[in-house]
């Protein structure tokens, strides 16, 4: 619960204010040097708090008699590791100044931790924060006489303590995946699998724009702004790089899909080396597809950084303002399309392999709407931006109407489609996209609940993709692309179809999976996207933070 509330703070406190001009955002707490943290973490021998380098430690025993009967069956020896309180004053780390917050303790700390400085007597380090939190988790369930409080079971207490252990382990893994450029953190690699060989890595050892978003949000919640700021500015520099494929260059403003830090010999001196950023704009990607979503995610993260850190100087920089405008001009450029939605090829977003989403996929439209709202709040008012802002506002109105009106499907809309007349040539046609009722899949009739609905995956002339795409629906709620009634209906559907969408391994990226002849034709017999794998109905736990966010909103 604390995590979801913190996400709400990072993204503005409420859904509309994520992109609004609300200046009452809360500032996060202290930041620190990531490498120092990693160095200290690696020195510890276990998950318990006695790894701290303390000048004065006193242990006070806690009665654990009531845990004896369940200790082995629940969490083994976890009682011995955690059910101790520590009262210590830690020695200063070598980089103590890097642990201190320039803005003091932020309001992101929960009420139970407001006595932080009182407990430790100084500005807390990350290590001290973990100590206090573990101490509180272990003590708050006990009465003064050492017995458990009423209505608090021993198993619940152990589960909560174990939860902190899992969170610590997750942070340790995340920090091990950090990438450094010239000594500064610039992102996290896409995947870190210690069992994989170098030959099997492909491009998973690179920093992907879209994959860094959940990592960036996590760092913002921790108050570690440096890595997010560096990521934003370094990827912006890559935007201006020359990018060609077979003598053809895409439009200006395209952001890379990923980048890698490489060490190369210094010009004129073979004995010296330097680090360089090597971006991939799709010319080396599998399938050679340009990443349409990268620029949209970049704008969204830039807005989240400003709101959470309070540092608006980054978005006000001339180069950053230019980068925003280049992305907007690329997305708002005139074309042949009659619809306000973005027309893209297959594999141009999170689903970056052939999955039949070419055209106007929902995920891209939701991110597009979100980026337009963020950009409108960040663009500085000047004569050169007037036309761009006007086009942006017009597109927002048309896009939101189009998605809410034509992408929405529920039992009522399904019955309307069954009664559609086809081949209507008229300005007043009801079946504007000439959808044939026979294309409604049998699974949809059985799957659609009486209460609830969702946004379909794609819409083109004579084609509606009725698959449920999770990211598109979830992010449509986050950025208020859906109406309030539609947002609640999507949540109702997720609840009603929890077994199909969540089950034992959350969260399905889409439902249902392509199978049989349909899989062969649409994916091209892709061995990675076999039914219920990867992009074809596979489970993606990274979607859970968005589920949590919209449920708490």
UniProtKB/TrEMBL annotation:
One of its GO terms (molecular function) is endo-alpha-N-acetylgalactosaminidase activity. It comes from the Eukaryota. InterPro entries: 6-hairpin_glycosidase_sf, 6hp_glycosidase-like_sf, Glyco_hydro_100. It catalyses: Hydrolysis of terminal non-reducing beta-D-fructofuranoside residues in beta-D-fructofuranosides. Keywords: Carbohydrate metabolism, Glycosidase, Hydrolase. Its EC number is 3.2.1.26. SUPFAM superfamilies: Six-hairpin glycosidases (SSF48208). One of its GO terms (biological process) is carbohydrate metabolic process. Coiled coil: none annotated. Invertase that cleaves sucrose into glucose and fructose. PANTHER family: NEUTRAL_ALKALINE INVERTASE 3, CHLOROPLASTIC, PTHR31916. Belongs to the glycosyl hydrolase 100 family. This is Alkaline/neutral invertase. It comes from Solanum tuberosum. The gene is LOC102597157.
């Amino acid at each position: 619960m604390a995590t979801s509330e913190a996400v709400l703070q990072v993204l503005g406190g409420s859904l509309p204010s994520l992109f609004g001009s609300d200046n009452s955002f809360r500032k996060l707490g202290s930041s620190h040097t990531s490498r120092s943290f990693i160095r200290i973490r690696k020195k510890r021998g276990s998950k318990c708090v006695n790894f701290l380098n303390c000048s004065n430690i006193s242990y006070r025993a806690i009665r654990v008699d009531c845990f004896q009967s369940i200790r082995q069956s629940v969490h083994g020896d976890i009682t011995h590791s955690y059910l101790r309180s520590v009262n210590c004053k830690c020695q200063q780390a070598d980089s103590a100044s890097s642990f201190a917050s320039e803005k003091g303790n932020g309001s992101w700390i929960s009420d139970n931790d407001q006595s932080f400085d009182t407990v430790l007597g100084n500005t807390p380090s990350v290590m001290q924060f973990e100590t206090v939190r573990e101490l509180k988790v272990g003590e708050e369930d006990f009465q003064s006489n050492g017995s458990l409080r009423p209505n608090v079971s021993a198993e619940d207490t152990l589960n909560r303590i174990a939860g902190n252990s899992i969170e610590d382990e997750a942070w340790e893994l995340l920090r091990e995946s950090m990438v450094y450029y010239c000594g500064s953190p610039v992102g996290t690699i896409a995947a870190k699998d210690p069992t994989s060989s170098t030959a099997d890595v492909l491009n998973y050892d690179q920093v992907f724009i879209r994959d860094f978003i959940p990592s960036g949000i996590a760092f913002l919640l921790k108050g570690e702004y440096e890595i997010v700021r560096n990521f934003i500015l370094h990827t912006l520099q890559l935007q201006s790089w020359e990018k060609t494929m077979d003598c053809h260059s895409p439009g200006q403003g395209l952001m890379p899909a990923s980048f890698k830090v490489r060490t190369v010999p210094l010009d004129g001196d073979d004995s010296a080396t330097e680090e360089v950023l090597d971006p991939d704009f799709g010319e080396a990607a599998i399938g050679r597809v340009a990443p349409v979503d990268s620029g949209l995610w970049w704008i969204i993260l830039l807005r989240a950084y400003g709101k959470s850190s309070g540092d608006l100087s980054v978005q006000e920089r001339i180069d950053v303002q230019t980068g925003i405008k280049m992305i907007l001009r690329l997305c708002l450029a005139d074309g042949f399309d009659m619809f306000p939605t973005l027309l893209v090829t297959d594999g141009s977003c999170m689903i970056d392999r052939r999955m039949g989403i070419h055209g106007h996929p929902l995920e891209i439209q939701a991110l597009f709407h979100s980026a337009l709202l963020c950009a409108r709040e960040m663009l500085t008012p000047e004569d050169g931006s007037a036309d761009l802002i006007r086009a942006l506002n017009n597109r927002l109105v048309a896009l939101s109407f189009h998605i809410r009106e034509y992408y929405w499907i529920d039992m009522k809309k399904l019955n309307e489609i069954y009664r559609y007349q086809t081949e209507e040539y008229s300005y007043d046609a009801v079946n504007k996209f000439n959808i044939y009722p026979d294309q409604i899949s049998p699974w949809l009739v059985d799957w659609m609940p009486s209460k609830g609905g969702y946004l379909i995956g794609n819409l083109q002339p004579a084609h509606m993709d009725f698959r449920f795409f999770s990211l598109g629906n979830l992010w449509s709620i986050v950025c208020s692309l859906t109406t309030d009634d539609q947002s609640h209906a999507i949540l109702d559907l997720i609840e009603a179809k929890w077994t199909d969408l969540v089950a034992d391994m959350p969260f399905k990226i889409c439902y249902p999976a392509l199978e049989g002849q349909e899989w062969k034709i649409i994916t091209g017999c892709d061995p990675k996207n076999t039914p219920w794998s990867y992009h074809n109905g596979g489970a993606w736990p990274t979607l859970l933070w968005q589920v949590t966010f919209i449920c708490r909103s």
